[in-house]
Design goal:
Number of helices of chain B: 3
Oligomer: heterodimer
Largest sheet of chain A: 4 strands, mixed
Largest interface: A-B, 33 and 26 residues
Number of strands of chain B: 7
Number of domains of chain A: 3
CATH class of the largest domain in chain A: Alpha Beta
Radius of gyration of chain B: 12 Å
Distance between the termini of chain A: 30 Å
Number of domains of chain B: 1
CATH topology of the largest domain in chain A: 2,3-Dihydroxybiphenyl 1,2-Dioxygenase, domain 1
Strand order of the largest sheet of chain B: 2-3-1-5
Shape of chain A: globular
Order of helices and strands of chain B: EHEEEHHEEE
Chain lengths: 193, 87
């Protein structure tokens, strides 16, 4: 199969029904530059009753943007309201900074503007703060604690192979089953080494 | 033999160090990228002894487990040998 490559994030996008609050949050509080805005007459999709809209972009660094669609004169469908709770937090954008001092400065910036921000959360290879935008969309700012190495990918393959095997049983209920299934794979890898 | 594996990366080294200080644990050398912490009877590991932050602590067995978890709180992890089936 031909090798195809992706070169990082161009933009991600989501709908908003809070134009002024979204502009204030991303442009004035986060300080991101508004770099592009598309306006269109419903993209010509009359059969869908496609609303007229603005699609606007903020620079989020390193060639990436975070973008929004504002559908003029529409009401937010229930299905697009951001649910509360940890499961919906999984759908988030994480921006990268390069130092602990920068992460601390972002935390202070957000808190000083009245944004509720988490404490620093240290994960395996990143450290992060978490917050939400006025639409309720979860956001994260993170710094790398170390570079990923080849062993991380090896370990991830073992983890996911064990997970796929467990999912296929239809009887997977907890992480202990994964850890025990994975142990057999690691033992085999060590025996083969 | 019961035990758990530890991936040979910096964030899990404090776990290995705590295991080395544990009277009931024996730490095997790294092979194929993983250490093995062996034990023959129930053990208790204290998070305070590892210095791990909670998010990493609750993933500290991610490299593989040959035992049963009898307790796993923010403060302590208790493991015991088992022959119970995984599923």
């Amino acid at each position: 199969m031909e090798t195809l490559t992706l070169n990082g994030v161009d933009h991600t996008a989501r709908p908003t029904w809070k134009l002024a609050e979204t502009m204030r949050f991303y442009r004035d509080i986060l300080g991101l530059k508004l770099v592009h805005a598309v306006t269109a007459k419903g993209w010509g999709r009359a059969d869908e009753a496609h609303a007229d809209f603005i699609h606007f972009f903020f620079d989020s660094g390193n060639g990436s943007a975070i973008a929004f669609f504002y559908y003029i004169g529409t009401q937010q469908p229930e299905a697009l309201k951001v649910p509360r709770g940890y499961m919906a937090m999984a759908n988030h954008t994480a921006w990268r900074v390069t130092s602990e001092a920068e992460l601390l400065a972002w935390q202070h910036r957000l808190e000083s503007q009245g944004v509720k921000v988490s404490q620093f959360i240290t994960h395996e290879i990143i450290e992060s703060i978490y917050f939400r935008d006025p639409n309720g969309y979860p956001l994260e700012i993170t710094r790398s604690l170390r570079d990923m190495v080849a062993l991380d990918a090896v370990d991830a393959e073992h983890t996911m192979a064990a997970a796929l095997a467990l999912e296929a049983t239809g009887k997977w209920t907890g992480i202990e089953q994964l850890w025990r299934t994975k142990a057999a794979r690691i033992r085999a890898a060590q025996d083969a080494a | 033999m019961s035990g758990f594996y530890v991936l040979d990366v910096p964030e899990f080294l404090p776990l290995l160090e705590a295991a080395r200080r544990h009277a009931l644990c024996q730490v095997h050398p790294v092979r194929a990228g993983y250490s093995y912490v062996a034990f023959a009877e129930p053990i208790e590991l204290l998070r305070a002894a590892t210095g791990l932050q909670p998010a990493v602590w609750f993933g500290c067995l991610t490299a593989g487990l040959d035992a049963k978890i009898t307790a796993f709180t923010a403060d302590a992890l208790c493991l015991t040998p088992t022959n119970e089936p995984i599923i």
